[in-house]
Automatic annotation (TrEMBL):
<keyword id="KW-0175">Coiled coil</keyword>
<feature type="domain" description="Protein kinase">
    <location>
        <begin position="102"/>
        <end position="354"/>
    </location>
</feature>
<feature type="region of interest" description="Disordered">
    <location>
        <begin position="1"/>
        <end position="25"/>
    </location>
</feature>
<feature type="coiled-coil region">
    <location>
        <begin position="449"/>
        <end position="504"/>
    </location>
</feature>
<feature type="compositionally biased region" description="Low complexity">
    <location>
        <begin position="628"/>
        <end position="646"/>
    </location>
</feature>
<feature type="region of interest" description="Disordered">
    <location>
        <begin position="615"/>
        <end position="646"/>
    </location>
</feature>
<dbReference type="InterPro" id="IPR050588">
    <property type="entry name" value="WNK_Ser-Thr_kinase"/>
</dbReference>
<dbReference type="InterPro" id="IPR000719">
    <property type="entry name" value="Prot_kinase_dom"/>
</dbReference>
<dbReference type="GO" id="GO:0004672">
    <property type="term" value="F:protein kinase activity"/>
</dbReference>
<dbReference type="Pfam" id="PF00069">
    <property type="entry name" value="Pkinase"/>
</dbReference>
<keyword id="KW-0808">Transferase</keyword>
<dbReference type="InterPro" id="IPR008271">
    <property type="entry name" value="Ser/Thr_kinase_AS"/>
</dbReference>
<dbReference type="InterPro" id="IPR011009">
    <property type="entry name" value="Kinase-like_dom_sf"/>
</dbReference>
<protein>
    <submittedName>
        <fullName>Serine/threonine-protein kinase pkpA</fullName>
    </submittedName>
</protein>
<dbReference type="GO" id="GO:0005524">
    <property type="term" value="F:ATP binding"/>
</dbReference>
<keyword id="KW-0418">Kinase</keyword>
Amino acid sequence: MSSDNTIASHQSMQDNKNLRVSFTTDNEPDYTNYYAPLSQNYISNPTDMPSSVDYTSFQRTVSTIPNLDSPYGIPISNDINDQSRSHDSEKVVEVSPNERYVRLNTLLGKGAYKVVYKAIDREEGYEVAWNTMQAMQSPNNKDLEHEIQILKSVRHPNIIAFHDAWYGDNEFVFITELMTSGTLREYIRKLAPLPNLKIIKRWSRQILKGLAYLHGHNPPIIHRDIKCDNIFINGAHGEVKIGDMGTAEMKLGKKYTLIGTPEFMAPEMYEEQGYNEKVDIYAFGMCLLEMATGEYPYGECKNAAQIYKKVSSGIKPACLSRVQNPEVLRVIENCLSNEHERMSAQEILEHSFLAVEPDVVLLAADPDNIHLTLQVVFKGMDKLSVKFDFNVETDTAEEVVREMIEEQVLPERYQHHITKEINRILRDIEKPTESEQAEQVRRSVWRRESDIRNELDRTKEELNHATDRVLEVEQKCNDFESRAQAAESRYKNALRSLKELEELKYASSTEDTSMANLSLNNATDEREREKLVNHILDEYSDDTDISVFVADCAQASHRGADKAHEWARKLQNQDIMTVGDLRDLHDEDWAGIGLTVFALRALKNMLKGKNLAANSVLTPSSPPPTTPLSSSSLPPTYPSQPTSTM
């Protein structure tokens, strides 16, 4: 088929609504995926099917109105009771022609072309699913009967049972087994982020068993629309069953009908050479891909035309690169390979990835548990089993299993698993009785309590030793701190004495030295000497106003009243209002006052005592001054007229 004819053929399918899929080219945005749960036998002339059809449902007891949300106006009864409203009572609203099945007013699900209700099988007494779909025209009775017989003949634990069907009033009704947990695709979302490998294996085995059953018919039955949306699950028991058998058809030679879901359709379904049951294996590979990644195959494509181009070009879905398990990836890649290279459903079931590990069971044992009879049971392999004797005193699990493998009684791939299971049984046999277990538990508890008490005593002793060491260290720290404080005090006293001596020495060596220093040097009376020193070392009180202190400092340093006013203003701008505020300043605070270096030194020296300048200090015979003056640590000044007459 040429590429032009291929595109034209797929474009013409857009109006053929008996098919599951239609295509448009990339530049035609109005793509529609027409879905029909049953095969084209129910529509006699699909190419002439009108765009809309007046429809009245076959019902005996309930009137209907069209559902505007449905594309074909499938009618829904006014008395429909949504299952989510559990408080509403269920009641019978319709009866089958043979009066065996009755439909309840409980809606289980609604798609674009099919509505499913809950129903009752009055002969068997269990719930079933009442499926209704619209049929445009009366089908050929022989074809319909043939199709129904095929569906009824399918009986397998992993395929939804088809019980009955009838046609009337433009409506096709069929009764199927009821599954309680919805589709496999919905259930995968519930196990977010992803189902584990054990679950994927269990689901895959059940799907493949159903496909192996269908493909095992003569001629084989091809489902043609395997996907997670058409596989249903009973979550209470983990049962997985293939549903939507309406597209199934017996293979009488190659099939050419284009039917299915684009993402799950094998490349050969798009070609004119025809296809066989291997298209179901391709679709299963896509289902396994969705189970392993949680992503819909070819989700990167925007329409069916893009999917068709990728499939025809052999481009695999993008999510295939996100499969983590290498064994799963190998199985998927085989399913998506060329139809001649694909394994059959039975071959995949026998693949090591899906092989069910056997069980080892204890059948019998003597009173002393020495001579045992064991059996290896292989599940899913026609109940194949291997029975053998085991002597606990002379045999080992490794030797017995290796011997059975050498005799080709057991497959080698199960060697490790069966060995482990035999050793597990041996450990269980060696377990003590309940009374022995109780005694062991009691002794174990006593030992644990004794160990805990001993450990607690050791911990208390260590804590006491640690506490004593802490107290000892604290005492040493206190001693060191006291000695450090005493050393610091002696150091400060020494510095102060040294500074005073240096200042006194400096004052006595200058021409401008004060009369107080001369008086101190010349004093012969010890009391007068002591009195003068006390005047020198006298300090200002903390509450002395800063302006008084600054005025004395300016006078002592031979500065005028304007300088005293300037210094006082700068100090008051820094909230220094008393001599106590000035003493509280740190060394780094002095630099931020804004005074000159000379003014700062004069103020600092003034804090240590009275002025030793000649103009401000009296001789020992003079009366004491009434106003405190600057410190003895003030740097020397040099007046223009010496005041000393010496």
